[in-house]
Amino acid sequence: MILGGTAVVGVSALGCLLGPPSRALRGLLFDTPHEATRAPTATVPRPTPTETAQPAPMALAWSYAANNPVLDVIPSSVWEAAAVFDPCVVRLADGSLRMWYSTRGGQPSSIGLASDATGTGDHWTRPRGEPVLTPDPPEAYPYGAITRPSVVALADGSWRMWYSTQGSSGAAGTAWIGTATSTDGVVWRKHGSPVLAPRDPWEKQALQCPNVRYDTASGRFQMWYCGGEQYEPDAVGFATSPDGIAWTRTPGNPIYQPTTGWEDGKIGSFQVHRVGDWYYALYNAFQRDPFVSRIGMARSRDGVGGWERHPANPLIAPGPPGSWDARMIYKPTALWDEREQRWDVWFNASMALDQTERIGHAWSNGLW
Fold first, then answer.
1. DSSP symbols for 155-212
2. Is the pTM of this model over 0.90?
3. Which domains does the chain show, CATH number per domain?
């Protein structure tokens, strides 16, 4: 049996049985309104599998960590002085959390690692002073940046990661998706060549933002990925694989595209989880004018077609002028806490376009 990464994998592919502190305790310690809308152990830790029934619908009302951003830049770091962004969070069996995230600084953009022993998602420490995965060593098509990780843990204690590359050239396009393996989630070995590269007209020259889960019913990995422009992708595709390396695209790609209003420009990321009989996607979308990114939710019976957008979209929007998240709310990573019936969402944000990005945390009781 394989457990999950970006969303902890199991039949539900969401969260863990061990969730964050109770809502009451969280309210006493961490809750704050959002004005715009309101060292590793020697043993290898493993995520907790979840198999949850479909909860009854409940209106979503978002709370935000009092100490947002919960993961900030390090001005003195050659890796993380300019931005930390595009996180992937996994809950371990002991209730603690791990976050893999993208870095930006004087050195090439890479993938870092942080841990939260409290399990709240608000108190992160970096176990090492440098990234766990960088553009070096090079792969078949050299690139200048490696970002946007999606991590899955296997039942034997090993880990798999899929990531985006940027700055490549040639037959693989300017951005493609690669994969790596690890025995502990810290030291990684790259596959060495793209597992998914631009091919179809809608994918243009760039594939980015992989989100991978393992489907126990079919015995296959499932990937939702974004394709289009390198600066920000345009739409969402879907593919499956028996081994995480050889992928088969669905004939109906792209499966999710921009529409109107707040999401009339681009779909920048798409993180999918399964709870009960539905697949739930948390995604960020861009409005054309003004150019602003926000987070919304959609659901589908099979994770491929028939997507129903949440009637209250966008769910997470920029904060007030002058705040750390005043302009752009980017790519979410989420866990579903079955015990607390709550979404926990981490996202990167900035106070202005193309300025410093930091990672924040929000949560809401209710599934849909």
1. TTS-EEEEEEEES--GGG-SB-EEEEEESSSSSEEE-SS-SB---SGGGBTEEEEEEE
2. no
3. 23-38+41-365 (2.115.10.20)
